[in-house]
Write a structure and sequence with these properties.
The protein is α/β, with parallel strands linked by helices. The protein is 49% helix and 13% strand. It has helices at 12-22, 43-47, 56-61, 75-82, 102-109, 141-151, 164-172, 174-191, 196-217, 221-228, 234-244, 247-263, and strands at residues 5-8, 32-35, 51-53, 65-68, 92-95, 115-119, 129-135, 154-158. The protein is elongated and about 70 Å long.
C-alpha cells in the first residue's frame, strides 16, 4: 500500500501496531511515522527504519492515514493540536483510543474527515491481533481501508460502535486475562513437579493448541472438552474443581467489570454495560 501512516502516541499499543504493520506484506518501516513526547523512548524504532518525531502536526501533514493511539485523557488536547493540519479530502483518522466515540472526535475535527474506530490488542505485533472496527458508514472507503490494514496483522471484525466498549474488554483486556490463566497453569505445573520454565513452555503450547483447535475446526469449546473428558477421569475432576472455585464465573465477572471500567475512561462518555 503506497500510503504513509502516522501513529500519534507511540506507547505500548502504538508501537505494537507499528511493529505488526512493518512486518506485514503491505507496509515498510519507512512508511510509518511514530510520535512521542519523549523521543528517547522510541529511538530504537528509528534504528529499525521508522520515522520518529515529537511534532504531531508535522507527522499529520506528511501522512495519508492517521492512527490516534494516545491515552483517553490525552485525546482532547491531541485532537485540538492536529486539527489545523488535517486535510479532510485526503486523509482518514483511525482512533484506537478506548471510550471516545466518533461523534466526540467530530466535535474537534469536524464531520468531513472519515473517522474509523479500531480496537486491536498487543498481539498485533506478531500478526495475531483480534481487531474490532466500526465507522458511521458500514460500507465506507475508510472502513474498507482500515480493514485491509488490520487484516494483515490478525483477524478483523466489523461491529457496531455501541459494541466497541465491550470489544475493549473481551479482546484488548482479554489478552491479559488469557495470559494470567496461562501463568496460573504454569504455576500448577510447577507444583506438581516441573521446573518453572518447563511448566511455562508446556502451558503456553497447550493453550496455543486449544485455541488452534477452535480456530481450525470451528467447533464449540464444549465439543472439544467432551473429547478429553471420560467417566470418573482426571480431566473432569479437575474441571469440576475449577468450576466449584468459580473459574468461569470469575472470568465472566472480570470481563464485565473491565467493560464498565472502559466505558468511563474518556471523561465525556460514562456508559456502563449491564
Amino acid at each position: 500500500m503506497n500510503k504513509t501512516i502516522a501513529i500519534l502516541g507511540a506507547g505500548n499499543i502504538g508501537t505494537a501496531i507499528a511493529t505488526g504493520l512493518a512486518t506485514s506484506a503491505i507496509f515498510e518501516a519507512g512508511q510509518i511515522i511514530l510520535t512521542r513526547r519523549r523521543l528517547n523512548l522510541i529511538e530504537s524504532y528509528a534504528e529499525a527504519g521508522f520515522k520518529i518525531t515529537s511534532n504531531n502536526t508535522e507527522a499529520v501533514s506528511k501522512s495519508d492515514i492517521i492512527i490516534v493511539a494516545v491515552e483517553p485523557q490525552q485525546a482532547d488536547a491531541l485532537l485540538e493540536e492536529i486539527e489545523p493540519s488535517i486535510d479532510a479530502q485526503k486523509q482518514i483518522i483511525i482512533s484506537v483510543v478506548s471510550g471516545i466515540s466518533i461523534n466526540q472526535i467530530e466535535r474537534t475535527l469536524g464531520d468531513k474527515i472519515p473517522i474509523v474506530r479500531a480496537m486491536p490488542n498487543t498481539a498485533i505485533s506478531i500478526g495475531e491481533s483480534m481487531t474490532c472496527i466500526c465507522s458511521k458508514g458500514e460500507a465506507s472507503d475508510a472502513l474498507h481501508a482500515t480493514k485491509t490494514i488490520f487484516d494483515t496483522v490478525g483477524k478483523t471484525l466489523v461491529i457496531l460502535e455501541e459494541q466497541m466498549t465491550a470489544a475493549t474488554a473481551l479482546c484488548s483486556c482479554g489478552i491479559a486475562f488469557f495470559l494470567r490463566s496461562i501463568r496460573a497453569a504454569s504455576q500448577g505445573g510447577t507444583e506438581i513437579g516441573f521446573h518453572a520454565h518447563e511448566a511455562l513452555e508446556m502451558a503456553v503450547q497447550t493453550a496455543k493448541g486449544a485455541a488452534s483447535l477452535l480456530s481450525n475446526e470451528d467447533n464449540h469449546p464444549e465439543f472439544e472438552i467432551d473429547r478429553v473428558t471420560t467417566p470418573r477421569g482426571c480431566t473432569i475432576s479437575g474441571l469440576n474443581e475449577m468450576e466449584h472455585s468459580g473459574f468461569s464465573s470469575a472470568m465472566i465477572k472480570g470481563i464485565l467489570l473491565s467493560a464498565n471500567k472502559a466505558a468511563g475512561l474518556y471523561p465525556d462518555e460514562k456508559k456502563s454495560i449491564s
